């Protein structure tokens, strides 16, 4: 199991956006690490680049407040599960997830394409 | 010679101008490049219409041949490809059909397959050949269809461009020898006119302006045209008779002699400035 959560600038809070989050928190076998998101500054196609990054890191569970349709299709094809973030801090989300209390994300937006 | 009718905003009078120019030109071609909502045909009512399907290319990947080098994924500047479970996935609405993935694949695992995106109609309105691109509802990009529409233009051609100043407009205007900018004398009209003028300037096309729906000159627009050296080729006032023509799907230049003269004069001016 390898879990990913988008992180904000403070490297503690969950980032409200997925593709352009500045960092990702990865958690596997009891230890966590933080990596910069290579798609954060992408001119366009950030969703696909972030999705490729997470697939390459062999993430099996993603916890995020929201996720676009195209990225969701990639995660589905990769067999990744997507859960809805419900806490401000990523550590809290991880704890709630381990208790089996996070529900799966069911709404996927159509993309913001520079609007949001 | 191709004359593109452009305006930064919708409703300024591109189709009105393009249709009337075509109807006043004698033998010519009218090309509706506004493939998302082509409406020149409402006025020109083309007869003996023939249509054909237009497709764009979409890559398919052979997982058996793919070595997973991801050269295609790295090459795609539109990020239409994501490598998952042994082969790239393609997102059709993001793909620009450039063919780059097939070119860079060392294993020849990419085959480009045609995907229909709309139809191209060609018919006649007297001496005017009417070409209309019609994009399928829900399609994200009509660029391929615009290219095909422009390609089938012959001789003197009037290109009725889409509104705005983005990719479909650029595609239409790039093919033109002259750009006729239709401007509305309002603050909003001027703002969008400036944007489309900047585009035409970048493309290095000669241009002139037709000021439509003018009751009195709008000073900021006049000043801008003067400063930039854009010739004002014609002015069309608010005219209930024109509104009547448009509302009943008729062409002002065919009903009202003074408009036939105006548009013929406009064509002469454009011809003379090249």
CATH superfamily of chain A: Dinitrogenase iron-molybdenum cofactor biosynthesis domain
Number of helices of chain A: 3
N- and C-termini, Cα separation of chain A: 32 Å
- The neighbouring-strand order within the major sheet of chain A is 3-2-1-4-5
Using only C-alpha atoms, the radius of gyration of chain A works out to 13 Å
Give the quaternary arrangement of the chains: heterodimer
Order of helices and strands of chain B: EHEHEHEEHEEHEHEHEHEHHH
* Overall number of domains of chain B: 2
Indicate the overall shape of chain B: elongated
Tally of structural domains of chain A = 1
Strands of the largest sheet of chain B, in order across it? 3-6-7-2-8-1-9-10-11
The parts of chain A where pLDDT drops under 50 for at least 5 residues are: none
Rg of chain B to the nearest angstrom?
Answer: 21 Å
- As for the CATH topology of the largest domain in chain B, it is Rossmann fold
How many individual helices of chain B? 11
**Topology, number of strands of chain B:** 11
Q: Mind telling me which CATH architecture of chain A this is?
A: 2-Layer Sandwich
Helix content of chain B: 25-40%
**What structural class results from the helix and strand content of chain A?**
alpha/beta
CATH homologous group name of the largest domain in chain B: P-loop containing nucleotide triphosphate hydrolases
Summarize the structure.
The complex is a heterodimer of chains A (116) and B (274). Chain A has 116 residues and is an alpha/beta fold.
List keywords for this structure.
heterodimer, A: alpha/beta, Nucleotidyltransferase, domain 5, 3 helices, B: 274 residues, alpha/beta, Rossmann fold, 2 domains, 9-stranded mixed beta sheet, two-stranded antiparallel sheet, 11 helices, 35% helix, 30% strand
Q: Would you mind describing this structure in some detail?
A:
- Chain A is of the alpha/beta class.
- Chain A has one domain (2-98): Dinitrogenase iron-molybdenum cofactor biosynthesis domain (Nucleotidyltransferase, domain 5).
- Helices cover 25% and strands 22% of the residues of chain A.
- Chain A has helices at residues 46-56, 69-77, 90-98, and strands spanning 2-7, 23-28, 31-36, 61-64, 81-84.
- Chain A has a five-stranded mixed β-sheet with strand order 3-2-1-4-5, sandwiched between helices.
- In chain A, helix 1 runs parallel beside helix 2 (69-77).
- The longest helix of chain A has 11 residues, at 46-56.
- Chain A is globular, with a radius of gyration of 13 Å.
- By secondary structure, chain B is of the alpha/beta class.
- Chain B has two domains: 2-55 and 117-272, P-loop containing nucleotide triphosphate hydrolases (Rossmann fold); 63-108, Alpha-Beta Plaits.
- Chain B has helices at 14-24, 40-44, 71-75, 100-104, 143-151, 167-174, 187-202, 219-228, 240-247, 252-255, 257-272; strands at residues 2-6, 28-32, 47-61, 81-84, 87-90, 110-125, 128-135, 157-160, 178-183, 207-214, 232-237.
- In chain B, a hairpin with a 2-residue loop joins strand 4 and strand 5 (87-90).
- In chain B, helix 1 (14-24) packs across helix 11 and helix 5 (143-151) packs parallel to helix 6 (167-174).
- Chain B is elongated.
- The mean pLDDT of chain B is 94.
- Chains A and B meet through helix 1 and helix 2 of A and strand 4 of B.
């Amino acid at each position: 199991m390898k879990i990913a959560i988008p992180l904000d600038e403070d490297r503690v809070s969950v980032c409200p956006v997925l593709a352009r989050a500045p960092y990702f928190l990865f958690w596997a076998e009891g230890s966590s690490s933080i990596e910069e998101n290579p798609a954060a500054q992408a001119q366009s196609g950030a969703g696909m680049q972030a999705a490729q990054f997470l697939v390459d890191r062999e993430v099996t569970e993603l916890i995020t407040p929201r996720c676009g349709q195209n990225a969701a299709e990639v995660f589905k094809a990769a067999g990744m599960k997507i859960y809805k973030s419900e806490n401000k801090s990523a550590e809290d989300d991880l704890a709630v997830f381990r208790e089996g209390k996070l529900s799966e994300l069911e709404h996927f937006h159509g993309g913001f394409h520079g609007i949001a | 010679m191709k004359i593109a009718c452009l305006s930064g905003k919708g409703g300024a009078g591109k189709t009105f101008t393009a249709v009337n120019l075509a109807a006043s030109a004698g033998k010519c071609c009218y090309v509706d490049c506004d493939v998302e909502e082509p409406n020149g045909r409402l006025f020109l009512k083309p007869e003996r219409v023939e249509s054909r399907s237009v497709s764009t290319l979409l890559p398919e990947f052979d997982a058996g041949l793919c070595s997973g080098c991801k050269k295609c994924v790295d090459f795609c500047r539109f990020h239409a490809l994501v490598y998952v479970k042994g082969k790239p996935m393609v997102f059709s609405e993001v793909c620009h059909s450039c063919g780059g993935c097939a070119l860079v694949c060392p294993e020849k695992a990419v085959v480009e397959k045609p995907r229909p995106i709309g139809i191209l109609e060609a018919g006649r309105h007297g001496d005017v050949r009417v070409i209309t691109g019609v994009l399928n509802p829900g399609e994200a990009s009509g660029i391929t269809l615009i290219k095909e529409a422009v390609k089938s233009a012959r001789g003197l051609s009037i290109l009725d461009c889409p509104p705005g100043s983005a990719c479909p407009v650029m595609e239409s205007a790039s093919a033109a020898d002259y750009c006729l900018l239709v401007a509305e004398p309002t603050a909003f009209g001027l703002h969008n006119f400036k944007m489309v003028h900047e585009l035409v300037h970048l493309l290095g096309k000669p241009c002139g302006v037709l000021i439509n729906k003018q009751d009195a000159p709008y000073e900021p627009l006049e000043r801008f045209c003067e400063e930039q050296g854009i010739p004002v080729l014609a002015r069309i006032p608010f005219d209930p008779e024109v509104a009547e023509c448009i509302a009943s799907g008729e062409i002002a230049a065919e009903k009202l002699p003074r408009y036939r003269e105006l548009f013929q004069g406009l064509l002469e001016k454009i011809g003379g400035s090249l």
